[in-house]
Structures are given as structure tokens and as C-alpha cells.
Amino acid sequence: MRYKVYAPQAFLKQGLFALIAEIWNELARNRWLTWQLFKRDFVAGYKQYLLGFWWVVFVPFASILSFMLLNKAGIVSFGSVAIPYPLYAFAGISFWQIFATGLINATHALVNAAGMIGKINFCRKSLVIATLGQATVFFLIQIAVGTGLFFYYRYIPSEKALLIPFLFLPLALLTLGLGFICAILNTMVREIANLLSFLMTFLMLITPVLYQRPSSGVLAAITRYNPLYYLVAFPRDMILYGQSAEGAGFWASSAFSIALLGVSLVFFHIAESKIAERL
Amino acid sequence: MAEESLIKVENLSKKFCASLRRSMWYGVIDTGRAIAGVGGHSERLRRDEFWALQGVSFRLERGQTLGIVGANGAGKTTLLRLLNGIIMPDTGQVSIGGRVGALIGVGAGFHPLLTGRENIFVNAAILGMDRRRTLKAFDAIVDFAGIGGFLDAPVRHYSSGMFMRLAFSVAVHCDPEILLIDEVLAVGDTQFQERCFNRLGLLRSQGVSTILVSHSMMHILGFCDSALYLKRGMVQQIGEPETVIRAYQDDVSAAGVPALPAGNSSEHGPETDVAVRRVEWVSGQGEVVEKAFAGSDVLLRIHYNARQDIGPVEMDIAVSGAGSDVLFRTSSKSFHKDLAVRAGEGYFDIRLKALAFNNQHVMAHAALWRADRSQLLFWQKDIPLFVSGDIRCGGRIIIDVDWKNIQ
Prior knowledge:
- Chain A is built from twelve helices and one strand.
- Chain A is globular.
- By secondary structure, chain A is mainly alpha-helical.
- In chain B, helix 3 (116-126) packs across helix 4 (131-145) and helix 3 crosses helix 5.
- Chain B folds into two domains: 63-254, Rossmann fold (3-Layer(aba) Sandwich), CATH 3.40.50; 274-388, Coagulation Factor XIII, Chain A, domain 1, CATH 2.70.50.60.
- At the A-B interface, strand 1, helix 1, helix 3, helix 6 and helix 12 of A face helix 1, strand 4 and helix 3 of B.
């Protein structure tokens, strides 16, 4: 008979490869659960909000508008953008929102399900992955709105816009990787979620999402090593112009995202058994 | 047969931390250690930590049912959570040889805004069922829960009974090989309970091993092949349900018997012509006792001292249960017993015959009046007695029963 064994620090004895195989099998086995959890959040969210998903569209528009006002007042400068600014900003912010919404939702994933985690043994990784589904839906809605925007400005995007699903993937993986880590940290220190919401706007400003990469100064140095910048800027450029100067950064950031996801999964796997008793 | 053990528990221990803040901190440290691959000293207690379970070992064979008894806080639920893999042990190990279904916190995965139908799918998935198995069991789940026309209504509009029925129904339909039950047999109306028992019976007959945590000795006795008595996190006894339950109940009765009152006044006040010196319980054999047995007689003996001749008196007695609700009350007058008190020392013996209380703490109260009720001579309240029960019977009182079948 094959036994499932629960023992302290069992993963130390099994080795890294066995551990990774175990995580992979768990994720594969729980695809249906992940889908169901996503559907649950989605349906419940849809029923709850009066504005429904208009909210999703409203937030980026509000950011873009306020930024245009700041620009007009001369407080910030966009740099020179060859195309109508709202198109430029909307394309960038749509990708940015995957990260912002996805990471905040993922951070809350475990704490929100505390009652369940303490009573039922199920795949908690599915909880985190399911929250990314939410961000993906928001992204799809924004693509629809964005299409309307392109029509309005009579601007024809590059045919490379059809690559959106692939352009989207690395950013989603980075979000998921950070999400796994933040979800665990948030169970231990509840301030993490508050801190993140606070940091998000700041991060958006230094990434630059709404204006072009500065060529010199502190911000330029930060941007140079910020994977978020490449993961947002490259897809945006590909959609708008069909080419981008950030190709190398994009691929490097993609590799970084995949590696981070791997590490964070192992971290999550080891830590999750410790959090069930403390939630 | 040894390899047929579906559950093997060896030297299992689990510690918890009494301080929330420190518990979080230990969580950070332990997680950090685990990531770094450094094993901590999980077998040692740190500040504010205590053993919720210590050195627990047992095995459970296929098709067997083990009952777990113990006081609140003895570690029963912790044991179930360890067996279910929700929390990890600090020492020892648990080996599980089959798919586990748990009736612990049923309904925990339900979302109030979703309909019954949507919740069935989500909850079944959480309990480990894939799409194919959920679809196959779907009709049976709905049928078993008996929620009929409410299937497509949000569950927050369900009555609490309907909610629990649906939750329970999903839980018992995920065909487990090992079933962990934490005191959930009291769900819904009698009709639904009947269905639950039959379902559990069916699972047992299919070779499902069950662990049942219950405060109902009736359930333990009725369903279990063996029982385990947990006391402060340790296995006190394991074996035949009757023996284990008896040991548990003896422990319960030994603890928690309050001291007898010393008598309301040793001296005569201006109002008291009769002072109570001492009260005690005396068995049928004439020994002073602290507990009595269901079905046997016991004497309530009240020693008194009367300052003067009182003449004819009447005595009221009452017995109350834990919630100070009066279970029984009568008076000597109702029984046409003529009592009288003369000056000096004496005692009343009040014989309570064939006690009908089952395994519970009771309080006796006695009041002495002049026969014309013009003066209350003494009122002795809250005289504690533990009546140990008949393990064949549940509930708070005992009724002598017999069965006959006439066809």
C-alpha cells in the first residue's frame, strides 16, 4: 500500500527535484479546482458590484486623465510621444493593471480563505493562481475598451498586437511569482497588503508606465534594472509601433520572471504547511 | 494484516503557542529555517508554547471505526487536523493509506452569494473531486440534501438547516476511503440525520475506515470498534469502547466535584432557631460518598442543632441540573410525612431512591419550615452530587427500558 506521510520537515529528506516534481503534479492535478475557485471569485464579484466591470475601465481612465491634467499644468512631462497620448497611456496601463490588480489580489488570497485553510486540506496554490484569473479578465475587458479607443483616434495598431497573449505571459508569471511570496508574507504580517497598495502608485510612477523612459538621472538608473519596465514597455511598443528598443530587456526580464516563479513556488510549498495553524 | 492499516500514527506530537504575536514570530522563524534547510528544534518547547498533542500512536485497519473521546482542549480536533494533513506534526509521523474525506468544518468553502448549484461544484472541487466525478455525483448530492427548488438560489437565502444539509451532502459524496468526523452527526432534522447515519453505515460497509470524534458516548458506543481517550494531549487509554468510556467518565466525575457547603451557620442568629452543622451524602451501604450511581439509592444527610423545641415541620427538597433548571421538586407534606424537631442535635436523612440522573452533576437544595409555613428554619442550597451514568444510555436521565417484538 502507498502511504501519504506527514512528518516534520519531510521535504528536507526528499531533495529539490522530487520537491519540484511534487509541486508540478499538485498543480496539474488541481487544474479543475483552480478553475472552480476562479469562477467562484468571478461570479461572486460580478454579483456584488453595482457598476460591474465598468469599475475596471474607470480606474485606468481616471489615472490617464489626472496625468494629462498634470502635464497641462506643467508639473510632469510625458516626453515626446508620436501618437495620441491616451492611446500610449492606455496601452501601457492595461499591462500595468495585470501586475497591480493581480499582485494585490494574490496577496489577499490566503488570508481571505483563512477559514477554509484551517479546516480543509486542499491545494492552496490554486487560491493564488485563481486570483490571477481575475486580473486576466480585467485585461481582456481593457483590450475591448482599448480597441474602441483606437477606432476613436483612427489609429491603426501594428499587426503584432495579435501577439498580445504571448506579450502578456511574462508579466503574468512575474505577478504570480511575487503573488505567491506576498500571499505567504501577508499571513504572517498583515501590514504587507496595506504596504503594497500604498507602494503600487509609487511603483507605477518609477516604472514609468505613463510616460517615456528618462534618458538620464536616478530614475533612468532604476528603470534600467526594473523588469517591470521592460515587461510593460515592450508589449506596448509592439502593439503601437510593431517594434521596440527594449527587446533584450524584455527577454531577460522574462527569464527572470520564470526563475522567480520557480523559486517562489518552492518557497510557498515549504511555507504553506506552517501557515495553516496560524491563520 | 499489518499492511492493511489505513492509518498509522507514530509518536505524534504537536505544539501550539499561547501568545498570538509570538506565534506569528515563531512562524516566521520556522518558515525561514525550513527554507534554509535547517531543521529547528521542533521537539523542544519555546516560551509560551505548549504541547497540544504528545506521543500519540495508534493504527486503524480498513473498515474499522475508532472513536476519540476526551474533554474540551484534550487535542481531539488537533489530532483530526494532523490526520487530514492540514497542519504538520512537530515530531513523529502520520501515514495515510487512502483518500481522506473529512467532515470537519463542512460548509467552510461555501460562498454565500453563489447558488446551491455553483457551490456544489466549487465545494466538491475543494474536497478533491474532479469534473467527471462531480457530474456523476451531482444528482445524488442534490437528492440527499433535499433542497429541491432552492438549487438555483444563492445559499445566503437558505435556512441554516438547508445550508448544513447541502454542505454535509457534498462532503459525504466524495467517496473517501478514510473518513474523519468531528461531531457533525447533529445536522438537520431527524429525517436528515437518519439519512446521514445510513450514508455513514453504507460507507462503513464498503470498507471505509472512520475516525469519529464525539462527546456523545452513545455514538462512540454505537459506531466504534475501538476508542481512544485523549487527556491533555496524551493517550490515556485505547481499547474496547466500553472500557475506555468508563475510564473517561470516571475521570470526569473525579474532577469537578465542588466541595460540600460547610453549613449555613454554625451559630444561632436571631432568625435561626435551627442551624445546619454539616451536610453529606451517604450511600446505601452507609458510607459517606461524593458520587452516586444511576439506579442506586443515596441519602442526603443534614446535621442540625435546634435551639428550642420547634414541633411539627415540613421540608422541601429540590434537585437542579447544571443550568440551575429545577429537575425535581417535592415536599414532605406532599408525601404525608410527619416530621418534628425537638431541641438539641439531630440529623435528617432524605433518601433519594433509584436515582434517574445519567452521568451529570446535580445540586440538591433543602428548606425546612414550621408546619404552618410561618417561619423558614433553614434553607440549604447547592449541595453538589455527581451521579455517574449508565454507559448504555445517553441523555441526562435514565429510564429503565425493555424491548419486545410481537408479530
